[in-house]
Structure formats: structure tokens, C-alpha cells
Amino acid sequence: MRVLVTGGAGYIGSHTVLQLLRERHEVLVYDNFSNSAPESLRRVKQLANADVALREGDIRDGAALGASFAEFQPEIVVHFAGLKAVGESTEKPLDYYSQNVSGSLELLRLMTQHGCKRIVFSSSATVYGDAHYLPIDESHVLQPTNPYGRTKHFIEEIIRDWSASVPGSCAVLLRYFNPVGADASGRIGEDPMGIPNNLFPYIAQVAVGRRPHLNIFGADYDTRDGTGERDYIHVEDLARAHFAAITYAAKSHGCEAINIGTGKSATVLEMVKAFEAASGRKIPYQIVDRRAGDVARMVADAGKAEALLGWKARLTIADMAATTWNWQINNPDGY
Length: 335
Ligand SMILES: NC(=O)c1ccc[n+]([C@@H]2O[C@H](COP(=O)([O-])OP(=O)(O)OC[C@H]3O[C@@H](n4cnc5c(N)ncnc54)[C@H](O)[C@@H]3O)[C@@H](O)[C@H]2O)c1
Fold this sequence. Notes:
Layout: E1 2-6, H1 11-22, E2 26-31, H2 39-48, E3 53-56, H3 62-72, E4 76-79, H4 86-91, H5 93-113, E5 118-124, H6 147-165, E6 170-176, E7 178-180, H7 199-207, E8 214-217, E9 229-230, E10 232-234, H8 235-250, E11 254-260, E12 266-267, H9 268-279, E13 285-288, H10 303-309, H11 317-330
Residues 7, 9-13, 31-36, 58-60, 80-84, 99, 103, 122, 124, 176, 179, 198 line the site of nicotinamide-adenine-dinucleotide.
């Protein structure tokens, strides 16, 4: 299929584009490079030995995005573009509403205008807010606790209404849990700008000597070892989930929200140990106060993904640690 990928130069986007090229899809990436570099796609092309069309622009720029629609005539959109830092979203909520919500509105408007009826959207487990039960399934109440999560929730609702209004359309809302890891080649991976917001890139930068130690936010949670427990999902499994969602959307109608996780959880200390084993290096850490808004445990019920998409996570915590380390040691300063 012809797949337009917004934000395709970013962390999850680049791994997904690689997967789509390997599955012989035709891809156009539309990205403003606000949190990525074209180098990721240069490497993706090398790895896949295939070409990707690339257009630079903001998703809110209707003229530029419309030109890509007119030129490429996509049959489906995979929509990654947006801002994603929870903390930053509480400081700059209007930026988040503008880029994430207004950007998605512009995208849907152009999809309608150009007769494109299928979309796979990057949502997040943050739409659930605090878990009322675990593992969390898709019918859990949606009560996000920060502006970032609310943008994802609002976009989900907007896509649902759009889909209901467009006969023959199909929308898949993928609610990712905690994406980590890198492609096995070590050529592409997560390259955060500034101080990493997420655990694994932070650990990797400590291991490689870019940061002195890891801060662990709270060791008095009601979990196996007191540190927070999360459902980590390998980015390669996540890329396969997008391929499965595209295949599903090609032959289905309606709008479905689907959790993408492993159904298993690991604590921060378990992730540190896995990383020490993979890298052969000691990760110095210190326990500091809990961070506002963090919950003790979060784990997905991933049954719907298996039932509807035929997708299931395959890779382990050890794979996540080994591939992250392979990426970091080969690219100590990122791209
Ligand atoms: N990484 C995670 O932990 C995680 C978890 C859940 C959901 N998500 C969602 O998945 C998507 C991809 O995440 P990622 O980790 O790959 O992030 P990323 O920042 O690496 O990728 C996002 C890409 O979108 C581009 N972009 C941002 N705003 C844009 C705009 N206005 N116009 C055009 N391009 C724009 C960036 O330059 C970047 O290449 C995001 O929507 C994010 O909210 C990520």
C-alpha cells in the first residue's frame, strides 16, 4: 500500500518505516524534524535497501501537507507526529494542544479531502490515567492526568467521530505502553534531545558515561522491590504491530482502540540489572523522591491485539537491554 507516515523520522517512526519497507509497502515520510534528523531515514533506506520519499513540513501546515497528499495519494496514514513529553506538556499545554490536536485535525481534514479513509494513530497508555485494575484492558475508563495524555484522549475521540462520519473508513488507535530497545543492527535507535525523559535512554547514557548516575524516583511503592513497575515493549515488536494494524485496516471498517504491550511488567531495578548484564557495566543509581503523577504499576491486557490483529510481543527484557546497548555503544552521541 501507499503509506504516508507523519513523524516517520522519529524513534518509533523510523523503526516502523523500516518494517514497512521490508514488507514492500511504499512510504512517504512527512516530518518537521523538531525532534529527529534526516539521518535516521538515510540509515533506514540503507538497511531496507529501498527508497523512502521524504517531505519536510509541519502537520499544521495544510498547504505543505496537502501537497504531499496530492503527490503521493496515500491509501493509509500512520500518524506518529506530535510532542510526547509529559512534564513539558504541563509547562506548555498550548503547544501540545496545537501540535497534537490541531495538527491531527488538519491531517484528518486533508485525508477527507483526498479520499484517504484509513489511519493508524499513535496513542498511549497515558490515556487511562491511574489504573483502577490490572492488567488494564481497552474498556478501562479514560482519565488522563496530564495535558499530553489529554491530547491523546481528545485525538482518539476526534478520530472516532471522523471515522463514524466517513463511510468505509477504518481507524486503529494503538495505545502503546513503554516502548524501548532498538533495531538489532545498532544503526537506528532512540536519540532524545537533551536530558532523556524515559528510563532506558537515561540508563544507556549513564552506561556510556554521558551521565554520572541514574535517579530512581521512589523505592517505596507497593511492588516487588519498591520501584515502579511498567510494561516495556520492544520497538521492533511495536513496528510489527503497525504492520499488523495496516493489514487489519486494509480489510476492516470502524474504529478500534488496541493496547500494545507484553502483558508483563518489570521494575526499574530489574531494568537496571538487565542493562548491567547486557552491557557488562555497572549502572550507578540513587533513590530520590517519588515523581508527581507516577503510578506504582502499569501493565497491559494485550489480548485484543492478538485477537484482532494476530499480533503478540515476542522480544524479552534481555533483548530490549541488548539492542539499546548495541545502539548506544555504536552511536554514543546519537545520530
Ligand atoms: N516513545 C514513547 O514512549 C511513546 C509512548 C506512547 C506513545 N508515543 C507516541 O508515539 C509517537 C511517536 O513517538 P516517538 O517516541 O517516536 O517520538 P519522536 O519525537 O521520536 O517522533 C515524533 C516525530 O514527529 C516529528 N514531529 C513532531 N511534531 C511535528 C509536527 N508538528 N509536524 C511534523 N512532524 C512533527 C518529530 O520531528 C519526530 O520525528 C508520538 O505521537 C508519541 O506521542 C510514544
